Amino acid sequence: MHKLSALFLIILLTSCSSIYDSPDKTEQTKELMGTIVTITVYHENKEEAHQAIGEAFNEIERIENILSSYKNTSEVYILNRDKKVEASNELIYTIGKSLRYGDLSRGAFDITVQPILDLYQHSFQDLKRPPTDSEIIQALRQVGYERIYIRNNNIQLEKDTKITLGGIAKGYIIDKAIITLEKNNIQHALVNAGGDMRAIGSKPDGNWNIALQNPRKEHEHIAIIPLNNTAVATSGDYERYFDDSKEFHHIIDPRTGYSATELISVTIVTHKAMDADALATSVFVLGKEEGLELIESLDGVEGLLITKEKDLVRSTGFIN
Ligand code: ADP
Ligand code: MG
């Protein structure tokens, strides 16, 4: 499903283009993390800009090779296969953060949902039918982040447990790309990975402004979000369905084993992309009421939710 979804990818958030294009602008795009990644930099020295962008892309690839579930040499792949792995700092950090988001969201964010995703995939692809309630109950027995054990840099999983970092890794990698750019003397940049992004500094003509598209009407904007050294991430059921009735998609409610269906889209704005990414997935699972409560309880976090009924719900400090 991962490969397929890339073909259907909607870039929900696009950087607003302006008539004025500075000669200091350097931009490069690559296909990574199952999506399209664009790095835009404003920097006088073109050679330095190219060098910095190159290093940022190398960093993205390096960490993707550790955290991806699909690459058969990645630490996550080995962990899921062998139920143990000697982990890099990057994996330890990402899993640690995921566990904290698990607690913060009272279990809505849970990286051990992979057996449910596997069940969906097997049911729809091989058996050509939805999973049954009892199959879901059976798969749910393997789910629960208390089944992950971390001792120093050794990670172990209980039998039949599998993890996915799809709800947090992209954000973490965006942050690492930004750090790499900063280390290379870049002060004004935007890293955009398929609509999840983080900006530093500004553009010569002002803010980094991001247009949030209507997930159901591609050419309609529902908000303009100014990024002032902040990040934005969106979780939506928009295009990644397992079935035609759109009941089964890739964001799982770990409390039921079914896909979360109360919202169609959640956009989070906060300082770091990793937090925005994990919170977007968490709020998507929690739904309108509990999701908003979580956003309002956190400092420096704002959100825009779209309900199934297409109502737009903003947190109190959401600017657009
Ligand atoms: P996108 O992949 O479109 O950026 P998300 O950031 O919401 O969307 O991530 C969705 C991914 O998160 C899924 O593909 C899966 O790997 C993972 N995931 C699904 N449900 C959960 C959950 N309840 N908690 C944590 N991760 C989840
Ligand atoms: Mg996410």
Structural features, described:
The protein is of the alpha+beta class and 320 residues long. The chain has 2 domains: 11-68 and 167-314, T-fold; 85-157, ApbE-like superfamily (T-fold, Orthogonal Bundle), CATH 1.10.3980. The chain is built from 9 helices and 14 strands. It has helices spanning 2-7, 46-67, 75-82, 89-104, 114-126, 133-140, 169-183, 273-286, 288-297; strands spanning 13-15, 25-32, 35-42, 84-86, 148-151, 154-157, 188-193, 196-200, 208-214, 217-227, 231-236, 263-270, 302-307, 312-314. The strands form 3 sheets. It has an 8-stranded antiparallel sheet. A 3-stranded antiparallel sheet has the order 1-9-10, with no helix packed on it. The protein has a 3-stranded antiparallel sheet with strand order 4-6-5. A hairpin with a 2-residue loop joins strand 5 and strand 6. Helix 2 (46-67) runs antiparallel to helix 7 and helix 8 (273-286) packs antiparallel against helix 9. 43% of the residues are buried. Mean pLDDT is 92; it is low at 1-12. The structure holds adenosine-5'-diphosphate and magnesium ion. Magnesium ion binds at residues 167, 233, 235, 277-278, 280-281.
How is this structure best summarized?
It is built from 9 helices and 14 strands. It has helices at 2-7, 46-67, 75-82, 89-104, 114-126, 133-140, 169-183, 273-286, 288-297; strands at residues 13-15, 25-32, 35-42, 84-86, 148-151, 154-157, 188-193, 196-200, 208-214, 217-227, 231-236, 263-270, 302-307, 312-314.
